[in-house]
Specification:
CATH topology of the largest domain: Glutathione S-transferase Yfyf (Class Pi), Chain A, domain 2
Number of domains: 2
Bound molecules: glutathione
Structural class: alpha+beta
Distance between the termini: 8 Å
CATH architecture of the largest domain: Up-down Bundle
Shape: globular
Number of strands: 4
Number of helices: 11
Radius of gyration: 18 Å
Amino acid sequence: MSTKHLKKGDAQPAPPEGGKLRLYSMAFCPYSHRARLALAAKGVPFDIVNINLLDKPDWLTSVQPQGKVPALDAGGGQIVIESLDIADFLDGKFPEPPLWPADADTKARHKKLIDDFGKVTKIFYEAVYGKEKRPLGEYLEEIVAALQPFEDELVAGGNTFFGGTRPGMLDYMIWPWAERAKVPSIINKHEMNFPKDKFPKLLAWRDAMKEEAAVKAQAVDTERHARFSSAYVDGTLDYDSV
Ligand SMILES: N[C@@H](CCC(=O)N[C@@H](CS)C(=O)NCC(=O)O)C(=O)O
């Protein structure tokens, strides 16, 4: 399986027909993954234009001035950027099913947890792409500490998902890194022994998320993620053949 990514010299595809939404994306980008999950959770039809981020088409900056993905073309000249803002926008435009918790305190806590999840993504990024590698045990220790509030939130909520009986915003915004959780071990050819006993709720959450329709519809398998990251690190990345 491969995914075509448009590069310099490729024309920008004509707008989608019938007022469909369009997501400018990259198949292995975790932030684009967030946007795809929100779109899938809402059951909104959309088309995807994947971008080769190492050889960007010139027109990308007319869509997203920083030349980044994801960017959502919502039609009528409205472009939404930033993964969380895209998910938030979709939640406002398509109310069912709601992604944010109805309770204001819970919503505020979940917003903070999404923000705090930046600690996990930073460690993940360093463990996979960092130029100066530290011992893997150090990354593991930091990830374990950064994940504890998420285990605690699931315990306090008493449900399978952060969103309750079905996934919500927090679930979808952190899932891309759960799908990629084994990549640091594969890339570094060294198993990071995650202390499973410390995270029973989070592990049950992961298993339940894998069965969710939106997650399944947007899933990329671990080996493919690892091939992407490995080729990126080696400087041999060809987006269309991963
Ligand atoms: N804060 C942004 C991050 C988006 C981002 O970093 N995207 C990366 C790909 S995963 C990108 O477009 N990189 C290209 C570049 O920085 O030139 C979001 O949440 O959407």
